[in-house]
Amino acid sequence: MPHLSHPILTCAQAKAWEAKLLRDEVAEWNAMQHAGRAVANALLDDAREIGGLDAGARLLVLAGKGHNGGDALLAAATLLANLPGATADVVCAFGVDALRPLARRALDTLRATAGARMHELDAPALKREFASYDACLDGVFGFQFRPPIDDATAELLAWVNTHPRLRLRAAVDLPSGLGEEANGATIFRADFTYCTGIVKSTVIAPANAAFVGRPRYLDLGFFAGVAGVSEPAKPAREPTTGAANRVLISSLVRPLGALRPAQSDKRTYGHLLVVGGSRHYPGAVLMTVQAALRSGVGLLTACVPASLVPEYAAKFPEAMWVGFTESADGGLSPAAVDLIGEKASRATALAIGPGLGAAPETLEAAAAILRNTPDSLPLLLDADALRAEVVHAAVGKRLVLTPHAGEWQRLGGSAGLRPASEHSHTGETVAVLKGSPTRITSSAALQPALEDIQRGLKHRATPEIDAIAYYSFFGGPVLARGGSGDLLAGLIGGLLAQAPNDLLLAAACGVVWHGLAADLLARDKGQVAVQTTQLLDYLQPALHCTDHEDT
Question: Could you tell me the residue ranges of all domains in the chain?
């Protein structure tokens, strides 16, 4: 999916790419203005999760010497232009005289925009005033930062990190003090990190998560040409870096919101079979079915315990509900295998696991179902199906796995996945490793791990090499509640049924769509007082907000 994602580069690679693309001061200034607007717009959107920035908001801006400081100052200018009663306290960490030409130009722009609504302070004055702030923009150090950090700046960052009356902290590009070299120095702790133009690999390193907060990718056109260079903008080829990681962009889901062909019917859009549910966990499969019904799939058959069918069919008659013979504890029993096999023969994708339960006979039946499915049928394994004995039965088939961290560890997986050898199993596998951020990895990295599971081994943790991982920066803590994964399974399952020949695309589309809807839900209703299924009402709006999200 190269055209639907952009590379994540090391700081050195990013420096080389920017030097090639931004070849004169005009191009650099235009890129800085674009970055400032993008940061301001993203901050306004993200602040809505805590009630938004009102017209009288008070901002704190920390600026360094270079482009990062200029980005932060221009973002503040845009914010003050949009919030007519807002004010900004600006701290140039190394003094105004130290500003480089474009950063100084950005400060002059902010002065002209803000007038008396802007106050320039030094660090001691900032500490003495001890004011409350609605948001802080960190632009002290950029991605070219090299340790050590000086004592005065470290004290400033530490003071801001512990300020008790600061509602939102946002880093421009990278949190100040965070570089590729580990140094243990004071680092700005961001709630959001706005990656401007290029996502640097430092952002996705698990060890940096506490400083990065929630990363957001602000696409400035660095991989599609940038207006304002000295010659007419041209599409830019991506750097040939062998980058193993990529960031997904929201335009991935744009086709889902387009007009469908007039000459189509329900058979045009696939047939998903969902298998799940038990007497002890009746809700999970219902949420999976609800999400699948919103995915655009043409037909949906849901196989659940027979005792649940009357209630579920009354709630969601759009699905074809099929009751299977229940085990003694109300779950899937081996007696249901043939029935589900017959239903699978008519489907274009099968999703199994939500609410299934972990009774031995249930897992035995799930494994038998997977062994009996045609190799061509794509399979989504979620929740209770993500157990070694079930996955063992599906090795060699076309799989999408959707584990959270605990489920992945239960399978024997690890953060570092070995690349496939030329003798790896031929079955295609995609894993959606749910988290913050979510990572999607294809069979190139996962087949050896699955083969270890097949042999009953714990997978060995070794460095990931030559394996592409796709990261989604959409979504956030509003998803940290029961049922979010069940909705994601339904979305991916429905998309898989519609595009059974592209497992990676279906998985990535489902993750991005789910995340975009979660962002809209949190901005509209907040992070706390919501129900999981409210996300469903934001799926359609999410398909029509993608142009704004990428800029």
Answer: 2-243, 266-413+426-549
Helix spans in 213-270 (H): none
Fold of 2-243: Rossmann fold (3.40.50)
Q: Report yes or no: 192 and 214 within 8 Å, Cβ to Cβ.
A: yes
CA distance 540 to 551: 20
Q: Are 362 and 278 in contact (CB under 8 A)?
A: yes
Q: Which of 54, 35, 64, 51 is nearest to 123 (CA)?
A: 64
3-class SS at 105? helix
- The span from the CA of 287 to the CA of 281, in Å, is 11
Calculate mean pLDDT across residues 364-369. 97
Gap between the Cα atoms of 409 and 394, Å rounded: 18
Q: What kind and span of H or E run contains 324?
A: strand 320-324
Compute the average pLDDT of residues 338-365. 96
- Amino acid code (one letter) for 139: G
Average pLDDT for residues 219-223, to the nearest whole number? 92
Position of tokens 């002209």?
112
Confidence of residue 446 (pLDDT cuts 50, 70, 90): very low
Q: What per-residue confidence (pLDDT) applies to 179?
A: 82
Fold designation for 266-413+426-549:
UDP-N-acetylmuramoyl-L-alanine:D-glutamate ligase (3.40.1190)
- The mean predicted confidence, pLDDT, of the chain is 89
Report how far residue 347's alpha carbon sits from residue 398's, in angstroms, rounded to the nearest whole number. Answer: 14
Euclidean distance between CA atoms 19 and 145, whole angstroms:
16
Alpha carbons 541 and 536: distance in angstroms, whole number: 10
531 Cβ partners below 8 Å, 6+ apart? none
Quick one: which H or E segment has residue 380?
strand 379-381
Q: Are 514 and 463 in contact, with CB atoms under 8 Å apart? A: no
Structure confidence by residue, pLDDT tens digits, 456-488? 433 333 333 336 899 999 999 999 999 999 999
